[in-house]
């Protein structure tokens, strides 16, 4: 959050004006974008000659957080002609705003939507107090009557807003935000739930079999927990089919990979902590949650650059995949998101046997030390007697 308001300009918003940037509407849009405080609420990027289809594509592909654009290159000239001859010109939907809340519901609602709303308000104020009075200065009395009768005097080309991926159900914010935190906590507690069973299994299995057992039981735990978590969301009428008809399966596997990524790390670190100093586990748990969620639910662009490490954290990538599942947002980086999760799972599985051997070695040393201390104490008592 530190100095976040100074970095709002990193949130690029495309503003497409007419080819003639000196025209009335283009000047109004340009003036609005460069007027304080609007100028500091987003990174307004002025362009000309960008077709609507390309604008929608650029926003959908996350090149821009949103766009404001004129739908016709003749908007200003048509407006001037209408005032000159007293005729009516339909200004509805001629200046448009486009964005997708599904790209980042929290960031859009907190930064982009307020910025576009205030941009629209100031732009309309400029039309009302500057542009229209200039147009009326040379209008004849007869044409003024016609303009008053046909409603042109109050028909401003205001900005019509299109949200192509709205947040239809507020309940979606639960699995998108706190639900991901619960995943970390669930995978931590599964370590404690299976401690006795794992200890009993270690007594009857040989070392190789025990390593295989621990790897299998860990992944089975995550598979079952992730299924329960996914089904729980379905119970609250959350749909997984925005992007894929079999979205439940995609969500299940996403939650499984997420649990395996964070849970595998929790499992390995718990073995190290319990082998060295058990209270360290609490420190790890707190640190791991903070590292995962500190910049996950805010646009990275408005955070200090050091927080770009978040792109490599499992919860961030699970969050991005979840937005695709729930909102059908841009899939261009889907391979990277799954790749990061799979990399965490692979590294955890490689390190797991090593951590088990370290825990076993430390446990044996503690047992031997305790046995030696007990023997020494017993010997001391016998000598005393």
Automatic annotation (TrEMBL):
* Alphabetic keyword roster: Membrane, Transmembrane, Transmembrane helix
Domain of life assignment: Eukaryota
- Ranges for domain DUF3533: 1-350
Do the record's keywords include Transmembrane helix?
A: yes
* TM segment ranges: 172-195, 211-232, 238-257, 269-291, 337-359
Name the InterPro entries on file. Answer: DUF3533 (IPR022703), MNNG_permease-like (IPR053001)
Q: Name one GO cellular component term.
A: membrane
**Membrane is among the record's keywords:** yes
Q: What is this protein called?
A: Unnamed protein product
What is the originating organism of this protein? Ambrosiozyma monospora (Yeast)
